[in-house]
Amino acid sequence: MDATRFGMRQRPAGLVSVCALAALLAAIPALTTSKAAAAEDAPAGVVTLAAYTTPREAYEEIISMFQATPMGAAVDFETSYSGSGDQSRAVEAGLPADVVALSLWPDIDRLVAPGIVAPDWWQNDYAGIVHDSIVVFAVRPGNPKGIADWPDLIREDVDVITPNPFTSGGAQWNLLAAYQAQIVAGRSEDEARAYLKALIANTSVMDRSAREALTTFAAGQGDVLIAYENEAIFAQQAGQPLEYVVPEGTILIENPVAVTLTGDAPVAAAAFVDFLYTPEAQAVFGRKGYRPVIAEVLAQFEYAQPSNLFTIADMGGWPEARPRFFDPGSGIVAEIFGELGRDAA
Amino acid sequence: MSTGVGAAPRIGPAITGRYDGRGLMGPGIAAIYLGLLVLIPISAILWRSVSDGLDDFVAAVTSPQAVAALQLTFTVSVVVMLINALMGTAIAWVLVRDQFLGKPLVNALIDLPFALPTIVAGLTLLALYGPQSPFGINAAYSQAGIIIALLFITLPFVVRAVQPVLVELDREMEEGAASLGASSPVVVRRIILPNLFPAILSGSALGFARCIGEFGSVVLIAGNIPFRTELASVYIYGQVEADAPGAASAVSVMLLVASLGLLAAFDLLRRRISRHEESAA
Known about the structure:
The complex is a heterodimer. Chain A is an alpha/beta fold. Chain A has helices at residues 3-32, 56-67, 84-92, 105-109, 172-184, 189-201, 210-218, 229-237, 266-276, 279-287, 295-300, 318-326, 332-344; strands at 45-51, 75-81, 99-101, 129-139, 160-161, 203-205, 224-228, 243-245, 249-259, 291-292, 308-310. Chain A is 43% helix and 17% strand. In chain A, strands 1, 2, 3, 4, 5, 6, 7, 8, 9, 10 and 11 form an eleven-stranded mixed sheet that branches. The termini of chain A are far apart.
């Protein structure tokens, strides 16, 4: 076979295939864009959302809603859902993320030091918070033990379930609420500490996370589960037989969201976070058991209003409250564990 | 070896195709693999545990909660190891020496704890032996629950270590002993068990090492109350969550030392027994 003749015969065929490939490549953008007609100045790109586990269904719905709007039409999403602390550590270790939506403020704030999130990330109209919840008591149907308020939890005949505050940052809400509820009811700090000790002594299981504590309670253990309202609602929506009681004094659980400095699509990410504060998105959170942060949307849902609702700010904010209670060596809760351990020995 | 100027160096029989056990490729590959997977990560933990200073290391491993967690972990692991040594040997005996319907199935089931994801094992055990147990057995959130979970997880270790030895065991020794008038218990005690002892030791040591590090299957059923039902692995996880990786590494090192210590001790014991037997033969 003559090499030149072979080459000359191949060249036209090669040219055709190269042109076809180029045409195909040029056509790909036209084939893959537009779930809706994109606006002129609409951001484009892939937004990576790193969120904690429980708002997963809410975010899936909100993402679809966002992509149906002109602003979100050219945006694709990659999502990751994991425990809040785990997710925070993963992002710190290099997990790419454009938006972080975690369970508590410190989990995002600790990303400021490595330069992943801006120091003023929380300075907007909503202090960086995208949805709320409160600490409630989940009880058996019919509330057979008659649990109504915090003092009932330290009764002898009541068995309490609450997650371990050292393995789950979110679990810290429960014990902070327990302590502060005593303070707002007029008791002294010593009395509040004594209450906390009695409560922990009355606890039979401390699961690794809130979701596992729910599993334990659903498996039949305990008379009352100190839970987040959104978890209790989630369980009810999933058909779990439980009711929940709102105590008179309880803490407002505030879940934050932030855009990172290190993401690939900052404009699209900012547009998405703006969308989270629209009434439509807030209503999705409301339907999934969270309390919207926009007052008008919150009013659409019939959430109980506790008579004494306090926030972490009333306890000095996370930077003060967390070490005071949960420092593994000198924190109040760590000391209580030590005392109970020595008493039991 | 080289035979003078111009002789090719012996790179390794792996290339030439002959095996004489003296090449460098085999050990080289093994060393790299072991290094990457085992040695480097373990060195990293060791380094991390002391990188905050020796004082912090000591404080971390002597903190009351850590001590309680380690005590609980070692106690339940020793109990589980002893039960395994007994029951694992018994099961291996039945599987090798007895015939019954469904034996291949039972034999395959022994490996089930290896195949099942630990968190699935934990959920299953909680359903079976927890508050909603269909058998009425509620052992959850206590040391008994932890022991049940660990027994499940470490079942295969002793069984699989003893089985091959039993299969290879020369029946002539037992028949000879029987023909000399030894009763069954004597045959078991003086002929069979000494032969199985090294395998029982190595299986038990592996089971112990697995026990002290177990997390997924026990974290649901244990209860995790500090000073009562909190295992070392859960405590370590808590330290990681609390942004105290140095303390987590320090307690991990204690578990590592315990594992390696026991493995080394049992290995030594095995060798002494084997040497004793060889010299007696």
